Amino acid sequence: MINLLIMGKPGAGKGTQSKKLLDHYQLFHISTGNIYREEIKKDSLIGQEAKKYLSEGNLVPDKMTNDIVKNVLRTERYPNGFMLDGYPRTDAQADALDDMLDELGIHLTAVINVEVKDEVLLHRMAGRRVCSNCGQTYHVDYHPSKVDGICDYCGHKLIQREDDLEESVMNRLNIYKEKTKPLLDHYERKGLLMVVDGEQTSDEVFNEIVKRLDE
Ligand code: AP5
Q1: Average pLDDT for 2-30
Q2: Cα(26)–Cα(19) distance, rounded to whole angstroms?
Q3: CA-CA 20 to 30 A from 17: which of 25, 77, 129, 136?
Q4: Any bridge partners for residue 138, and if so which?
Q5: Residue-wise pLDDT tens digits, 122-149
Q6: How far apart are CA 215 and CA 200, in angstroms?
Q7: Domain extents in the chain
Q8: Where does residue 27 rank: exposed (0-12), middle (13-18), buried (19+ CB within 10 A)?
Q9: Segments of the chain assigned E as strands
Q10: What is the per-residue pLDDT across 161-207, written as a single tens digit (0 to 9) for each?
Q11: What secondary structure letter does DSSP report for 172?
């Protein structure tokens, strides 16, 4: 069983690498960002509450996020393990996750930190396009769809995420540096941290992660 946590600045490529790793190791994906975007699309109570935070690039309150992850970890099945993407992001979330894993008797295999410089991220987020239906991610330069503006998988329209507009991006980056980056020390102390260079092509990043995990 492989239980992974993937961390990195907004736009570092967490979602892109998660998708490749899920397919490779047959893992269960827990992306708090995707969960919130789905709830917003459904216009559920959680979605209505989360929308206020996501649209401006702020973090959703810890209690709501911890409850969601706790519920998923307790109720879903993940025979080959899971990939946590975008969680934890604060001290309180890291503590809550430690408690949940202790309670369930689960150990993390590794915490992957995808490192990318700010200027690269800004270009990645400005060019990111996502499918309005299935959420598949593209980039206008690095990973364009076959037909401009249309998803290769489901044929729906590609859109820009509301939080990829410049003001939200700067806010997300500042929040990452203040609240999330310090968690890397927490995982380094536990001997779990694996730092990878996220400025390589996405295939190279993936190959490096797999090679190091398989070692
Ligand atoms: P979330 O969805 O987690 O967003 P994020 O951390 O800001 O990360 P992104 O999805 O923006 O980027 P990514 O690293 O996945 O990059 P991607 O692979 O798409 O969270 C969104 C919001 O939800 C938060 O702001 C918050 O409001 C809320 N939220 C979520 N979790 C929460 C929590 N735990 N607590 C509280 N609130 C929470 O790649 C980016 C682009 O670059 C793409 O276009 C891609 O094609 C391209 N690309 C990727 N890799 C490469 C490469 N190697 N070379 C070239 N291009 C690449």
Answers
A1: 96
A2: 10
A3: 77
A4: 129
A5: 999 999 999 999 999 999 999 999 999 9
A6: 20
A7: 4-116+167-214
A8: buried
A9: 4-8, 28-31, 82-85, 110-115, 128-131, 137-139, 158-159, 193-197
A10: 989 988 889 999 999 999 999 999 999 999 999 999 999 999 999 99
A11: H
Element (H, E) at 95: helix 91-104
For residues 201, 179, 88, 170, the Cα torsion angle rounded to the nearest 10 degrees is -40
Nearest C-alpha to atom 49 of ligand 1 is from which residue?
Answer: 13
pTM over 0.85? The answer is yes
Q: How far is the CA of 82 from the centre of ligand 1 (A)?
A: 18
Q: How far is the CA of 11 from the centre of ligand 1 (A)?
A: 5
Structurally, at CATH architecture level, domain 4-116+167-214 sits in 3-Layer(aba) Sandwich (3.40)
- Alpha-carbon dihedral 197, 2, 18, 93, rounded to 10 degrees: -90
Q: Among 53, 59, 72, 203, say which to mutate for ligand 1: greatest number of ligand atoms within 8 Å of CB.
A: 59
Tokens 């993390």 identify what position? Answer: 108
